[in-house]
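Sharing a chain and its predicted structure for anyone who wants a worked example. Both blocks are below, sequence first, tokens second.
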Amino acid sequence: MYDVALAFGDSITQHGYEYENSGWLTHFSARYARRMDILNRGFSGYNTTAAKQAAPIVFPKRIEGIEGTLSWQLALTKRGKWPSTDATFPTFHPEVQLCILFFGANDAADPRDHRHTPLDEYSENLRYLVNMLHDPESQHYSPDTRILIITPPVVGDKMTEEHFKNRGWKYNPHKNTVTKKYAEAAVAVARDLNLPSVDI
């Protein structure tokens, strides 16, 4: 197998392979074809609190005493590029080279919505997920795994208001002014932890 990029998020990630909607993971997978396997671990409706509960079965556990590569495969990966474009089978035991954390759209929901997570708790939950991979005491410790945080996306207020009104909701659970605060919090967490982020 190839090494792995793990996309962990909510419905935006779950539906990321829907080609008819030009899902973002279809483009990501095409970009890294023959270089990495992209694992979709998107869960519709999940906020970061639910993600903390799911993370132990989403993140791989470290296995002691296993050699990562065969000698000829190791030679393929020493060409100075990441990941190697010519390494058809770069590792004997695939490793998670990249973990994408893409949460916040549900956390930013109206407090009357069960998906809502208070802003401070959202930030702490993101830190918790990062620490699961980067804390040496964690069973999921993976120091070589790069982590990318993606912010919740912009909300079209008029469109979402009409959408939920047509579904019989008495209020619009998503507002752009609120989601913006969660996006800013995600960027701040990434900055504090010296991680890259994508603000969409």
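Comments welcome. The mean pLDDT is 84.
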